[in-house]
Amino acid sequence: MPIDKTSLASTYAESPDPKAAKPPKGEKLYVSYRIPFSMNCDDLKIRLKVVYRNLEQEEKVFPVHHRMGAVGFDLVGDKFKKTNGFFTYRVELLDKDDHVVDSNQQRMWVEILKLNQ
In angstroms, rounded to a whole number, what is the distance separating the alpha carbons of residues 104 and 87? Predict the structure, then answer.
């Protein structure tokens, strides 16, 4: 989802906002989840692996506090300019021992290999 002037609440409230003159540029990735009742959600976490358009990679881990929810990952400002935005992502649900319980990936997901030169 793009982040721009329309991301600012002041755009819809028609209220003054110093950020409106120079709105943020970037993207936001949302990951929503629903944990079945057969699993204890206190022991779970979400690992998000992101590949940017410049082929850099990043990994973030988010704790799971509720059976249903969403986590957001912002890419704005200088980091957005440097990476040119999101290319693809993979999401994994991990148990307390960091074993993958479930996973999902965007269609363009690829593992980036780093070769020794």
Answer: 15
pLDDT tens digits, one per residue of 52-106 = 999 999 999 999 999 999 999 999 889 999 999 999 999 999 999 999 999 999 9
What is the rounded distance in angstroms from the CA atom of residue 70 to the CA atom of residue 52? 21
Question: Looking at per-residue confidence, does 2 or 99 come out higher?
Answer: 99
What pLDDT score was predicted for residue 70? 94
In angstroms, the CA 1 to CA 106 distance is 14
Secondary element (H or E) of residue 9: helix 9-13
Question: Are the C-beta atoms of 3 and 76 separated by less than 8 Å?
Answer: yes
**Tokens 């600012």 map to which residue?**
8
Q: Cβ contacts of residue 110 below 8 Å, gap of 6+?
A: 51, 88
Tokens encoding 1: 């989802």
DSSP letter at 106? -
Cα 78 to Cα 86: distance, rounded to the nearest angstrom? 14
